[in-house]
Amino acid sequence: MTPVLEVSDLRTHFFTRAGVVKAVDGVSFEVGRGEVVGLVGESGSGKSVTGFSLLGLIDPPGRIVGGSVKFRGEELVGQPPRALRRIRGAKIAMVFQDPMMTLNPVLTIGRQMALAVTAHERMSRRAADARSAEVLARVGIPEARARLAAYPHEMSGGMRQRVAIAIALLHGADVIIADEPTTALDVSIQAQILAEVGELVKGSGTALIWISHDLATVSAIASRVLVMYAGRIVEEGPVGAVLSDPRHPYTAGLVASLPAMSEPGEPLAQIRGSAVSLLDLPEGCAFRPRCDRATAACAAEPALRPDGARAVRCIHPVGVAA
């Protein structure tokens, strides 16, 4: 499969008074046409900053300090703002976590969608409205034409999130980055949106990067998963294989903490300790202070070691005697 997006050794650091925060520290992966890749990890693992970095949406004191992001062979890192604006929304679109923070409360849905259309194409307002209504209908919004006159506050959370997804679909983007778009929604609405997005990706061939802390959600939509911890990918592979047979102790801890893995009435399993501070990372493996399998050898920096279709960044992977 020819990759649509190629990310190589991406590094995004934030230069604060307290020190340098290595939010993304050497991340590499590829996404092919029509592929859904899940990016998972705890809060602060660097997954959202990775998504923002792909589009150059990093504000000071942060900046991309190294690595490469290639879209259809074109390097994006270091491109001037004008060149990136040509790609954002039209070729690579993003769906943010909270639609109430991304939709303008004083503009109608139709007006906001028309602005998104005309930012990249010359088109009459009537034609823009027609395309907007068509895309709203595709994401499951009833009476789509009438909804163009509504304001964001007049719609439910699920409907607002559908609008945000519809805006990302307006130009037939080759890649969509979805940053925890269903986190604030109830389970039934979440399931509907997952099903609709899955069908849209299959029908259009769009590549999708689904960022989430919810393994169950990722397992329902992704074919491949990347597990992040402390700014690095610690495990990757087919979603079914990774979640059923995790190799990295951190991934194993995430899977074990799922409610479905515990009997009713039993305490939920949890990873001991807290996520490490990116300002004060330990030597070697960043997960070492929380890992039950850690030895003195873990003070050395582990590499991401390929293993067939999978890879794991661990000296003592699960299933192998420490």
TrEMBL record:
Q: Which InterPro entries match?
A: AAA+_ATPase, ABC_Ni/Peptide_Import, ABC_transporter-like_ATP-bd, ABC_transporter-like_CS, Oligopep_ABC_C, P-loop_NTPase
PROSITE patterns, per this entry? ABC_TRANSPORTER_1, ABC_TRANSPORTER_2
Q: Which GO terms describe its molecular function?
A: ATP binding; ATP hydrolysis activity
Q: Which GO cellular component term is one of those annotated? A: plasma membrane
- Annotated SMART domains: AAA
Q: Name one GO biological process term.
A: peptide transport
Q: Which UniProt keywords apply?
A: ATP-binding, Cell membrane, Membrane, Nucleotide-binding, Transport
- Where is it localised? Cell inner membrane
Q: Does the keyword Ribonucleoprotein apply?
A: no
**In which domain of life is the source organism classified?**
Bacteria
Bilayer-crossing residues are none
Keyword Electron transport annotated: no
User: Start and end of every ABC transporter domain?
Assistant: 5-255
This protein's membrane topology, according to the annotation, is: Peripheral membrane protein
Family assignment? Belongs to the ABC transporter superfamily.
List the protein's name.
Methionine ABC transporter ATP-binding protein
Organism equals: Acuticoccus sediminis
